[in-house]
Predict the 3D structure of the following.
Amino acid sequence: MALVRFGVSMDHTLLEVFDRTIQREGFASRSDALRHLVQRFISAKRWEHLAGQAMGAVTLVYDHTTRNLTERLLKLEHAFRDTIVSTTHVHCNARVCLEVLLVRGETKRIATLVRELQSLRGVLDCQVTSVPFQENEGEESHG
Ligand code: NI
């Protein structure tokens, strides 16, 4: 496979932290680390484009003191009550909250929810673990 070189612009501080992380994790080079990250990113995003149903957990970290964030989040969670099965909220410190949303529904609907959550100002991290499934898979037939 032909290798293609391309330039990446990055904040100096971010690059320093990246280089330290690469070293700690034992990558041979920035290119190696980037290839690894790109592959992870692609496979993490792949589920969003599958048709059908999925279940998953959305882990959200946010600063609840961000203006209007809690109102926006609550409104969003109510709008997606068809998809959100349950929510667990832990107050990490005076500002930061950790919330885990268990979700179930159409893959596209879950992906929309995740995109909306990620776009909220004050959300510090949003990670998704998701598995596609078929409703009647694994059932014995009673026909
Ligand atoms: Ni909280």
The mean pLDDT is 91. Residues 64, 89, 91, 97 surround nickel (II) ion (CB under 6 Å). The first helix runs from residue 12 to 25. The chain has four helices and four strands.
